Structures are given as C-alpha cells and as structure tokens.
Amino acid sequence: MKLVDVLEKLSNACGVAGREEEVRVLMKKLLKPHVDEIKEDKLGNIIGIKKGKKNAPTVMLAAHMDEIGLMVKTITKEGFLRFTKIGGIDDRILIAQKVIVHTSKGPIRGVIGAKPPHILKEEERKKVVEADKLFIDVGATSKEDAQKMGVRIGDPVSFDIQFTRVGKDAVVGKAFDDRVGCVALIEILRRLQKIECTIYAVGTIQEEVGLRGATVAAFQLHPDVGMALDVTVAGDTPGVQEAEAPIKMRKGPAITVTDSGLITHPKVLRWLIDAAEQSKVQYQLETGLGGTTDAARISLSREGVPSGVISIPTRYIHSPASLLSLNDLEKTVKLMVTAIKSVQKYF
Ligand SMILES: [Zn+2]
Description:
Shape: globular
Radius of gyration: 21 Å
Bound molecules: zinc ion
C-alpha cells in the first residue's frame, strides 16, 4: 500500500482519546508484517518489537493513536446532545461541524448546532459561542428517541470529514495529529531490514489528554532512547508572524530542541542532526512551542530516558481538517531510518 493510502485509512478511522479501538486494530494489522512480535498492553497501547543484536541500544518510537474529539454529556428532553471536549479544542471551530456519535448500536451522524445568528443581539454576535452553549443535533425527536438510536452518556464523538488530496503534494483530513506519526512509524519499520538496535514501535493511547499511554509504555519497555513522532504547527499561513511560529510546511521535518515539556538531550539532538545531514534531508529546528508530546513522559520514565521529537509540519492542527505535505512525511521517514541505523554509535 502507498504511504498516502495508509494515511487515508488511518485518518478516516476514529479514535477519540480513550476510545482508540478502530485505530488500534488498524495499527496492529499494518505494523505486524514489519516486526518480530506485536502485543497490546493492559491500557491499550500497541507495541511492535523488532529485535536487534544483544547489547545494542533499545529505541522506543512513539506515535499516538488518539485524536481530539467530544463526548456526550447529557441528552435534553428534546433529544439534543450536550457534550464535553476531549483534548484541546478551540470553541470557535465547533459551530456547524458535522460529527459522528459512536453509539453502542453503531455510528450515527449529526451536526453541531447553536442559537441562530439572526436572533442574536449585536453584542452576542461578536463573541465566541462557548462549547457549553452548543449541542449536537442527531435528528432525534426526544430524549427517548435519541436513546433508542443508541445514544448514551459518555459516547465518543468524532468529526465527520473524509480524507482528500489537494494541490501537488498535499492532503486534507482529520486527526493528522497524530495519524501521520502512525504512518511514519509503520513506514520506518517497513524500510528497516537488518538492524543493530532493538526497536519498540509504540502506538500510544490518550496522548491528547495527558500523555498517558506513553507513560506506562515507557515504564514497561525501559528503552535506552525515546522518540516521539508527531506533528507541529506550520506557521506559514496568512497573519502568522515568523517569531510566533517559524516552522514551515514543505521545508522538512522539525526537530524539537525545546517544548513546554522537554529539553531535548544534547546527545539525541546531535544524533538526529547528524542523521539529517548524512541523509541530506532538509530539516528545521524548533524551540519554545506551547505544547508537548509523548517524549516528555518517556524522558522522565524510571531513571530517565534521553528523548527527542521529530514532527511533521501541519496546518490547522486540532481542528476538524488539517493540511500537510506528503513530501514532509517522506523526509521524516528518511531522516528517522538513517538515524536508527546509526543509533549504536551514540548511545
Ligand atoms: Zn500529537
């Protein structure tokens, strides 16, 4: 399967944090041919193991399977669903979004509704409508009707958008954060044949709500080096200043120097930059972004694990539709494959 097709499959799959099953099944299937062993841990992380030589370093590569979304909070007597947010979602992007409510009877479609602008007062119209004023309309006629459709409190809700290609090299879809990391993970393993080090390829759960899966995965695996494969904000869009978000799409992967949860170990930074230069992959260095990744938790596991992050620049992260370049994905894979082959020289 081509990289773009794998990304399409994973992007269209639904896996709101804590409910990653659909993605987990796919990841298991897609990783399996490229590892010696694959298992699922008690919380739902997927761990693929590719064995290397004895006494060579062990490397944990993590990509999170979960995505941001919503969860049904209450059902009104008229049959509308109030919801709570799962992960970091900007209230401004919610109105009029098409969504899928994942019920025990299967997925049902709906739309996020709000008070019509026509009847809002001048002052109200200028303000962002907060999430707790919004509701999901699944076409139910009453609370009982919604329940009959299968809706229960706690049902996960994902955005209803299908993957599509745009321009020469770009794609639009949901949950690229971090399904594109999952794709990179699979492709890196596919391209590595005989290697010295042992790789733990981990599809983690619940990253968006506090890096939870990576925490327990790093503890059980006890790796020598940790890497998160994730996305970062591409700031090359109108209205964004260079100093606010300097990473650009189509300029290669970003190697994190610092973020809000990690100061990359100097040895890891050297290793990654050397690999980029050796493989002639264009790269960008990133510091000071507000968010963080699984690497923050991996690095603090047990007695500490030197860790880093490599990110694919992505526009409109944490919204229903993100956009990225397939060339950046390709460069990310190439850089990481080169790095893995030389890891024993650094650790
Ligand atoms: Zn992420």
